[in-house]
TrEMBL record, chain B:
Belongs to the ATPase B chain family. It is a single-pass membrane protein. One of its GO terms (molecular function) is proton-transporting ATP synthase activity, rotational mechanism. InterPro entries: ATP_synth_B-like_membr_sf (IPR028987), ATP_synth_b/b'su_bac/chlpt (IPR002146), ATP_synth_F0_bsu_bac (IPR005864), ATP_synthase_B_chain (IPR050059). F(1)F(0) ATP synthase produces ATP from ADP in the presence of a proton or sodium gradient. F-type ATPases consist of two structural domains, F(1) containing the extramembraneous catalytic core and F(0) containing the membrane proton channel, linked together by a central stalk and a peripheral stalk. During catalysis, ATP synthesis in the catalytic domain of F(1) is coupled via a rotary mechanism of the central stalk subunits to proton translocation. Component of the F(0) channel, it forms part of the peripheral stalk, linking F(1) to F(0). Its main location: membrane. Residues 64-135 form a coiled coil. It comes from Agrococcus pavilionensis RW1. It is found in: Cell membrane. The chain crosses the membrane at residues 27-46. This is ATP synthase subunit b. Pfam families: ATP-synt_B (PF00430). It comes from the Bacteria. GO terms for cellular component: plasma membrane; proton-transporting ATP synthase complex. The gene is atpF.
Amino acid sequence: MLASAANEPEPFHPPSIAEFFPQVFLFMEPTVSWLGSEEPIFGINRIMLIRILAALAIILIFVLGTRKMKLIPTRGQSIIELGLGFVRDGIVYDLLGEKDGRRFLPIITTIFFMVLAMNITGIIPFLNIAGTSVIGVPLVLAIVSYIAFIYAGVKKHPGAFFKNSLFPSGVPWPLYIIVTPIEFVSTFVLRPVTLTLRLMMNLFVGHLLLVLFFAATHFFFFSAGGFFTLFGVGTLAFGFAFTVFEILVAVLQAYVFAILTTVYIQLALAEEH
Amino acid sequence: MLTTPLFLAEEAGETTQNPLLPAPYDIIWSSVIFVVLLLVFWKVVLPRVQALLDERAAAIEGGIKKAEEAQAEAAAALESYNTQLAEARAEAARIKDQARADAARIEADLKARANEEAERITAQAHQRIEAERQAAFSSLKTEVGSLALDLSEKVVGESMDDARSAAIVERFLADLEREGANR
């Protein structure tokens, strides 16, 4: 490795997948047999702690922030109203209308702010890893989204929802041989899978990139030294740029997850064709 | 595919995990956090915001209504002022007409009374003139008679007895009157 060229013994620390699975330090018991190994059921590791911290931050901000709301908002209240109004008017009411939107507003608001808060921990100093970069949260939220749109469809078109989604009308019946499997896979299989993987992989890779840039910077500055310090300046600049980029990704992925869930619900409600 | 560590995962001294396979605690804590956050938004935050929005909408609607009321009031006031103004104008015109008619009537009255007075004065004057003429005529008649007698006595030189003289005067005067009538 490059580190061997330097006289300092400290080697280059590359990012590793182990960072996403830190040691469980609390509630190691009870365990359950899971995928061939014994795993703690309620284990708390660094990632879980970060998620709980993010959740506490959301609860604190929104419960305290909406406690004494005034008709003419103060500056803090304006920001909270702006955030909630963005999800309400910009995503939910815009796509579902006010009547249907009101029913699904809590779920979509929760999804948006939960994803946003757990994404943003990826660039908060000392936390430095996104709560959504481990598959649990993306998977749970994708399942919530999946249940929500199927519930919406079944409630709106009892008995006809699955038929409508799998056998779209206006298609000559022999084409159902091709159309129905495609519709099934795209609607009932790919939607939750893509929701999960899009969110998780964005944040996962974002974390690896940041670690790579900052670990390299550290290595170039303190282990390699000399001529390599110049590389360090470059990697530091990239690290900075990608930190800013991660803010964009954090907001964008939260928006994408929320709006896709809303679109799925909208399609299920509108399924008339 | 992702079960192999990216670089030197064995450094961490753990069994490497497939990042696509969730650990049980991962799922459980994610679900717990989701449920808690859902309850917070559903039962606490969003109802508060909705109440605020309703209140704000009511306030805005109330404001609009108040403004509309004020406008209607102003319009009503304007209308009443206009009617009052028109009434006042009509009243003024009526009073002016009345005054003009009164003035004309008074003028005509005065004129008529003045004419009457003038006529009355003229008539009185005529009467007086006539009476004076009569008086003058009768006094003249006696005086002329006696003068003529005196004169004739002087001419004749002797006096006549009263009976005769009276008869002569009567005859003379009758002649005079006749002459006056003939002329």
